[in-house]
Amino acid sequence: MASSSIDQIPSAAETLTSQLPSDNTPTSVEPIPSSDSHPTADVPMASSSIGELTSVAETLTSHLPSDISSAPVEAVGEKRKRDDEKTNLESSDPNLTPSPWWKTSLCSYFRRQGNCSHGSTCRYAHGEEELRQKPDNTWDPTSERGKKAKMSENAGKCDAEEEEREVLFTEDMMDENDGEEGCGDSVHDLSLSKCLVHLPRKWQSDDLKKFIGELGVEFKFAKKRRGMMVGFLTFENAEQLQSGVETLEGKAVGHKNLKIADVLPRATEKNQTKNPAKIKSAREAVTPLADLSYADQLEQKKASMMQWLKKLTRNARKACPNGKSLPEWVLQSREIGGLSCKLEGIIESPVRNGYRNKCEFSAGYSVEGKTTVGFLLGNFSAGVTAVEEPVDCPNISKIACRYASIFQTFLENSRLPVWNKFKNFGFWRQLTVREGRKPGVISNGEDAETSIAEAMLIVQVCTTGTDEAEVATEFEEMAKAFAEGAKASSPTLPLTVLLVQDHQGISNVAPPDCPLRLLPIPMSDNETTNQDQPTNVLAEARIHDHINNLRFSISPTAFFQVNTGAAEKLYSLAGDWADLGPDTLLFDVCCGTGTIGLTLAHRVGMVIGIEMNASAVSDAERNAKINGLSNCKFICSKAEDVMSSLLKEYLDVSQMEEAKPPSNANDDLDKQISSTEEMSNSEPVDDQSLPTPNIHEEHQNNEQKDSSSSEPERSTKLQFKNVVAIVDPPRPGLHPDVIKALRTHPRLRTLVYISCNPETLVANAIELCTPSFLEKAEQGNNGYRKQRRMGTAASARHRAKKMPASEPFRPVKAMAVDIFPHTDHCEMVMLLKR
Ligand SMILES: C[S@@+](CC[C@H](N)C(=O)[O-])C[C@H]1O[C@@H](n2cnc3c(N)ncnc32)[C@H](O)[C@@H]1O
């Protein structure tokens, strides 16, 4: 661990990352929402400001610093502290090392009255000369230096807004045949057209026309699609345009102001007017940190995680009921710069290039109007539809790039159209490439691809309104193109499974029960296909990967961490922190294919995995069997529906047997290691003999399903001395009912939270770690509407107030794990105990 983690000392430059792209921290590398369980919405990593500022009322002490809002760590709670102890913060004794917060805020008394009764012992600065920089390298925002910094920050924001004006490819919105007056012209005078940015997403064309009409603006036609924040306006002539722009620019709509931007034309051979310098490359869109050194990327992520840990402290203070003393961890936070617990460091990814084992490539048009398979250059809701090839994106493997290129060449000659996001029309939508790696050493060099043994291709289409025979021919030709392309590549590409997913929805994010169809892969040059392959073997459509010497079977829609090598480190860390032993009952909440529970099964008495995706649960059961682990049980259900009853079932039983170490746990481990060694020398798929559930049946059966890889349950339950939960939820975090169940069960003392989204980790931790104050809780749902308008942290504080009386957890330590090099994303592991 030590060798791979960056030191623990908070970096001086706690640079805030500006924004996250949307990669499904997950499994999509597109900057738009992805189909995986980690959603992909942009998350401003440093968004803690306004809504989260410590309330002024709370900080009203007799002697205020002038920047209350910016001094949450040192100032808030100061009054509580002052009564019981004197800190070096307050001391001017030269023999004491002054607090890092000494004189980092201006004294408001001194400022107003020109003097202060505390004189030279005042902890706040008397004037600009005395003012010191805060430990996080910021200045009191009311000071001259603070204001200057704010101005340059705002200038940066303006630049960011400027970027928003780059609305790509919006010309499509005005294409013919959509029934709009004036849209019939196949050639538009784009100089008479404008984009309106910051419109309410729920508006449609009629709302836009009404709004413009009421302002007396004349126009030729207006267009707006629900869900987007851009609309389009075309004027009859230059005079209309000029007066329209003058009226509309900056006009308030809701709580935003309208911006007017140029419509960027689709560049064609005749029309090469686009200024490529203004457009993001795929590399910039998908791997925004790629131009930083890896050490700088890690520093940046670590600094960002620290901001989130500070935010947790600030929110816990706010959530703490009046009259109750602040939890010890909040009081102690001042000793570690306001962090809610120590950030131990950041664990590096063992592989930095080509690490993604799952890539989702969109089918669309490039800025030049060329059929392209690659990444969207921005957010569709902001009007960006251009797709660019995955050139120079260091997180994508050569194999995935090669398949994208094969598919693109095939689409160039296809009789069926690619999907048009504006018109919700077309056939070819997306290519997903999933890779399975051989067991053994993970290589970070040029030969990284040699460890990839299997590849699953999932092509998403929309068959609405198509001719069945034509589609069948296209699929056959596509399968041939992939097979030939794989064979012609050097080295030959693995091709294990080819699937088609028929999805009718507006976005490419398909539900897990979206129909899948297995296509036969042509086997040889003379096109002898594997026609013998029965069509009902969809359940065998799977690839395999390896973590900690265990073999994992993965079905098409099951979640699997996209960076296998880094995931291995993540799971080991969670296990090391979880305080495991033979008398431990481990709950693996949101277990996916069982990776966490199974890799730790040999260290505990029993694992109970909970997962809502039926295919993933069936994979987890299969994976327990493949690896000879018999102390694991998997529940197919939403965690919020079963967490409380499972805790009761396993912990509150009256008739219990004392747990003994699982007799076969260590044997199993030895067995699995040797069998994995065998596997590494053998053909990859060796679990075919296992009973295989039918995927379709599973999808249809969404009811709770218990399954166990052990013998039928005994009437008496085992009594486990130690109960631990490791939770690994998707980006929205844990459901409030899961939090409540975990928090209110007194026997659960250790909780390891693995998070791909620090914002929801903070929100969940607020509920888990602040003292309960039910006596003051407002009951019922009357706050619901208000809550919906709150930020995540504010609504967590609101829910914390309703938490039934229970002992809160405390954050003990945290570690960042860099699963996603070159992107803004990062996993965080936090140990909570009580
Ligand atoms: C971040 S993944 C983690 C999976 C697994 N722990 C791993 O590392 O491979 C989150 C998982 O939670 C599942 N999930 C999402 N919402 C859930 C819910 N409400 N209840 C149970 N599982 C859920 C998803 O299907 C996904 O498999």
UniProtKB/TrEMBL annotation:
A Gene Ontology molecular function term of the record:
RNA binding
| Alphabetized Pfam families for the sequence | Methyltransf_31, tRNA_U5-meth_tr, zf-CCCH
Question: Polar residues bias located where?
Answer: 1-38, 46-69
Q: Where is the signal peptide?
A: none
Keyword Transferase in record: yes
> Active site annotated at which positions?
C756, C756 (nucleophile)
Stretches of Basic and acidic residues bias are at 76-88, 133-146, 695-716
GO terms of biological process kind = methylation; RNA processing
Region Disordered, residue ranges = 1-97, 133-162, 675-716
State where the C3H1-type zinc fingers lie: 101-129
Give the protein family.
Answer: Belongs to the class I-like SAM-binding methyltransferase superfamily. RNA M5U methyltransferase family.
- PANTHER family from the xrefs? TRNA (URACIL-5-)-METHYLTRANSFERASE (PTHR45904), TRNA (URACIL-5-)-METHYLTRANSFERASE HOMOLOG A (PTHR45904:SF2)
Name the record gives this protein: C3H1-type domain-containing protein
